[in-house]
Amino acid sequence: MKVLSIIQHTSAEYLGLMEDHLEGRQIRFKYYRPFVEGNPMPDRDAFGDGLILLGGGPWGAAGSRDIPTLAEEVAVTRSCLMQGKPIIAIGLGAIILAIAAGGSAKPAPLTFSVGEARRIKDDALNGYLPEVFPHVVYMKDAPVLPDYAEILAVDEAGEPAVFQIGENAFGFIGHPGTKPAIAEDLFMEFEEIPENSAAVLDSLNIKKVDIEDALIPIMTGLIQKTGLMGRGN
Question: Where are the domains of the chain?
Answer without folding.
Answer: 3-226
